[in-house]
Inverse folding.
């Protein structure tokens, strides 16, 4: 058998590694301290309200503390962060 595999050049490998690193950094989960970072993206009031309404109708939402029993976050805060996501993928 002839395995003719085109290996990437060093330059291509470095470009791919850099692109992968950037993608991983952009996919990092949000953390509570991201709320203190002025460079962390925020959603507008309509999107926050949409997300929060979904949470309020979810079986994992704790009404008394307004937290999620899956991630433990205070949802009125988490729903403001642009990169935040629902732990059960509802938003």
């Amino acid at each position: 058998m002839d395995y003719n595999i085109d290996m990437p050049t060093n330059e291509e490998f470095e470009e791919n590694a850099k692109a992968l690193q950037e993608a991983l950094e952009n996919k990092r989960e949000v953390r509570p301290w991201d709320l203190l970072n002025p460079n962390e993206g925020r959603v507008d009031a309509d999107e926050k309200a949409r997300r929060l309404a979904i949470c309020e109708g979810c079986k994992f939402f704790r009404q008394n503390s307004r937290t999620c029993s899956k991630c433990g976050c205070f949802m009125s805060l988490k729903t403001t962060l642009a990169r935040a996501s629902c732990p059960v993928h509802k938003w």
The CA atoms of residues 39 and 56 lie 28 Å apart. The helical segments are 10-26, 45-56, 75-78. The mean pLDDT is 88.
